[in-house]
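To whoever is on call:

I kicked off a structure prediction for a single chain this morning and the downstream step that reads the tokens threw a length-mismatch warning. I double-checked the sequence; it's 443 residues and nothing unusual in it as far as I can see. Pasting both halves so you can look.
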Amino acid sequence: MATQAADLSSGHRWTVSPTPHEVITDYFTKNPDARFEHPDPYDVSRSDIYAEHRWQPIFAELRAKGPLHRVEKSPYGPYWSVVQHKAVQHVESLPELFSSSWQHGGITILDRPEPEDGQEAFELPMFIAMDRPQHTGQRRTVAPAFTPTEMKRLEDSIRQRTGEVLEGLPHGTQFDWVQSVSIELTTQMLAILFDFPWEDRHLLTFWSDWAGDTELAGIRDLDGTRRGILYEMAAYFQQLWQQRAQLGEAPDLISMMIHSPAMNKMSPQEFMGNLVLLIVGGNDTTRNTMSGIIHAFDRFPDQRKLFEEKPDLIPNAVQECIRFQTPLKHMRRTASEDTELFGKHIKKGDKVILWYNSANRDEQVFDDADRLDIERENARRHLAFGYGIHRCVGARLAELQLRILLEEIHARRLRVEVTGEVERVRANFVEGFRKLEVTLSKF
């Protein structure tokens, strides 16, 4: 049975279950023949290679063959894979030639949805999926929430909340790190950024999971369910918008949009799209790296020991863990005209996928790239936040949250060991963990 959260005013009850994972599992249980086929061994859009964590050698083969590869048949149609670090940077540096606009296809490998008979297409414009000049104005609207000054203002509260979560964890008893730490901390942070009602903050995680799951979005039979949940999200935020519109300027993201000429006249779809961007970007990236750090330290105990002995390495460890985890695997671009790219002929309209996870394991840039090394001198060269005009606007906040988490773990001399089930997200967009069972001890 679905659980619910309180309405802002009174009557309505906001659904917070089931999760996309539960829905997809149920769907494929009832439709066992519906799994996508992947006839091309180099089709890296397949989600099973990520769920089973066996994607690394496939990309290594591709990088050895060259920077760019064509896949003719996939569940998402034909596409080009950009797999080398330098090549990803090159494509990112040409935003006019390789468009991010939702009108041309957007930022994920998914195709634009076809409208149902008699209905408008369900589009979610967002500023990361816009080209200049629209992108510039909307990005500038939210950028002040992530300045160095704002990070300094937030640091004490982030540290306090992180400490409270860590203090509440059981010692010597197995628990799920994803639920108890990663989700809780990132959900709290999102609630603060939006000045979101605290008692309903877990709605933010629920909406993020539904909005950011590309495998779910690829199942047309579930479009109605997903769309209904996103409309509920928009309705909730519309109430917040109406409340904030009566108030003056404030540092929360909704108030920033209200008082911005670039964003205060957004269509309902654009409003919904930018909410999805800010929620998924603020949730999935940090949340999954918080879990990825713990899993990586457990896989490489020598690096965990180094962290325990040398806390001054924490800032660099954050960069290395982001590189190693790469919480968003890809971004998509669409060629705006015929062009040559690395000796290949790219046609106007071709789908070009930038695989950040592959770029961050590029042997030409990172020695022994499949190994965690918190002393890695060039860890900051990772592309996990993208590159160029679309580089993640919240990168500083993600880095701050991760640094504080490691500092507070070290201050309490906590050793977090993986002692139970590990379940990864089955997706080609988000790299993450659904479950990470751990036990705490002291070092």
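Update from on-call: the warning came from a stale cache, not from the record. Cleared it. Sanity check on the structure: Residues 4-442 form a domain with the Cytochrome p450 fold (CATH 1.10.630.10).
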